What does this fold into?
Amino acid sequence: MPMPSPPWQKLEEYTKVAIEAAQLGACMLQACAKRGFEVERKTPLNLVTDADRESERAVVAAIRRQCPDHQILAEEEGFYTTQRSPWKWIIDPLDGTTNFAHGFPAYAVSIGLEYEGHCVLGVVIDPTRDEVFVGITGKGATLNGLPIQVSHVTQLDQALLVTGFGYDLRETDDNNLAEFCQFSLCTQGVRRTGSAVLDLCYVACGRFDAFWELTLNPWDTAAGVVIVREAGGMVTNYQGAPFSIYEKKLVASNGRIHQECLKVLQRVRGQCGRL
Ligand code: IPD
Ligand code: CA
Ligand code: CA
It folds into this structure.
């Protein structure tokens, strides 16, 4: 499906809305971190805190104030609206909940915006480093207002990669550990930050050369894919087809090592009978 051209003026206006909403969410996270918060388990590995919910409430309220007719999908409450609109906001109010719950400073608020089913805007705020990543379709990507670009590494054995693991890690054999081992042997290193949103932003600004993950949700990827693409990077599924945020498996890279990454994934997964 060709990308419909979004009304640019609106997109500019919605960028401001997204930044303001993400700032409110980020303030909520820092307030919770300071005063303390309750932690609950959705499953043994999947935590949720007051901060997730309070950040989501703040972000959703800010978006609804400015854009009452738009669709909203957010991680904790799901769909807030049922009306039809070409605009759909996709929100992760706290990406990196496990880090947050343990006091490890790697987490972010992520807000993506779709226009007629295409991701056109991404805003990510990391309140622990005061970093604001923005990607606007056709207009480039920035970090704290300055343009960013993916790295120039051309070989996998010189690349620094990052990945993450789904919360079903203990329940399935298809848990990314075989892929993690293989990439560890053929790159300069593989990191695991615990925030898929930041992993994507770090590919966009060249801190990582590629990121892959097996079990992602739309709120993990909606903002980051725009930021990576607008920084000159490539985002596909494991087959090399353009990635949809409604798919689970993602490879994001500087483009230069993308085919090599896909080959490793296909080889490892082929050996395990999981093509
Ligand atoms: C998780 C983080 C993690 C990734 C998981 C995500 P959450 O999101 O992004 O890095 O490996 O797949 O679910 O639960 O912290 O919002
Ligand atoms: Ca997430
Ligand atoms: Ca989350």
Q: What stands out?
A: The domain at 156-271 is CATH 3.40.190.80 (D-Maltodextrin-Binding Protein; domain 2). The chain has a mean pLDDT of 96.
